[in-house]
Specification:
endopeptidase fold (from Nostoc punctiforme), two-stranded antiparallel sheet, alpha+beta, 338 residues, single chain
């Protein structure tokens, strides 16, 4: 099997002998707000609370944003009027998300978007991290978002180029640090300008194609694009040709590849089942949001039972959520090494 061949070829001892850059090169202000918010997960709810001894929803917001020099109005309804409106598809960490008809009619709750479809907020059970698409309560009550942060874009010279495998936005404390470092040193994944990896960005089909083509050392196809929607000068044309020719990726109608589309977690499960020839290992794992009739039910069982992908603490898989670059890197790492 391909999996066994890969294991034999790529299992190595990963030795990290360097340190990630200092905090002087921290993430964007939005990431800072998101990271501050997450530090207070578990703090109890307190009506009228504005300190870490207890927060209500808007009090939590004013406290966190004050840490980065931004003053917000005291109520959720007023917080929904500041800054500029942001569409749900354009959300960035640090944006304010707000909800209607919770404990009263109209806008009555707010939180801080932290990336990958989640927000941190002070709810009745305390400060917690929740999906903005949670289907049973918060998803239907989602009303909109506002952006109050103005990023000061650093000049290229302010972020020096780092050695291979090091990224300014993937510090040693980051949950996927080991996996991203390993694959980067193997030249399977690459970052962006100024040694950034953008781990919370959703991964595009073209990026996933390039990673798999490099991982399997596929012969690159330099001729005309197989997919009609891939331009001849597309940066990943050869890799896309290679994965389509091997059958790793299946095109859409009329052989379209849709290179700029993001990949959902369910689609990653189907992709890895196909690429790594996976079968279910053990008993069925029950997820509240994945019914047996769901199109990728078996594929999700395959990746989770083989410890390649995980569900969440609320017993969901979030199959329709977009996979982040960090998640995809972690899944690929696990499929290789385990």
């Amino acid at each position: 099997m391909l999996k066994k061949v890969l294991v034999a070829m790529f299992i190595v001892v990963l030795t990290v002998s360097w340190m990630i850059t200092p905090d002087a090169f921290a993430n964007s202000k939005g990431d800072q707000v998101a990271n501050i918010a997450k530090k207070y997960i578990g703090v109890p709810y307190k009506w009228g609370g504005t300190t870490p001894s207890g927060f209500d929803c808007s009090g939590f917001m004013t406290y966190v944003f004050d840490k980065v020099g931004v003053t917000l109005p005291r109520t959720s309804a007023d917080q929904a009027t500041v800054g500029t409106a942001v569409s749900k598809s354009n959300l960035q960490p640090g944006d304010i998300v707000y909800f209607s008809n919770t404990y009263k009619t109209g806008i009555s709750h707010s939180g801080i978007y932290v990336g990958n479809g989640y927000f941190v907020h002070a709810a009745s059970k305390g400060v917690q991290k929740t999906s903005i698409n949670e289907p049973y309560y918060w998803g239907p009550k989602y009303t909109g978002a506002r952006r109050v942060l103005k990023e000061e874009q650093p000049k290229a010279a302010e972020l020096p180029t780092l050695p291979k495998g090091q990224y300014h936005d993937v510090k040693s404390s980051y949950w996927a640090y080991e996996q991203i470092t390993y694959l980067s040193k193997k030249d399977i994944i690459t970052g962006y300008d100024q040694s950034l990896f953008k781990p919370e960005n959703s991964i595009k089909r073209s990026e996933a194609a390039a990673m798999l083509a490099k991982a399997f050392n596929l012969p690159l196809e330099s001729g005309s694009p197989i997919a009609p929607d891939v331009p001849n000068n597309h940066w990943a044309k050869e890799e896309i040709n290679a994965v389509m020719k091997t059958g790793y990726f299946e095109g859409y109608q009329n052989k379209e590849f849709r290179p700029e589309d993001s990949i959902k977690r369910s689609e990653v499960a189907a992709l890895f089942t196909r690429v790594f020839d996976l079968e279910k290992n053990g008993s069925t794992i029950n997820f509240k949001d994945v019914a047996p009739s769901y199109w990728a039910f078996d594929e999700i069982q395959n990746v989770t039972s083989n410890n390649i992908a995980n569900g969440y603490s609320d017993q969901t898989f979030k199959a329709e959520e977009k996979a982040s670059r960090a998640e995809f890197s972690t899944f690929l790492y696990r499929a290789w090494v385990n």
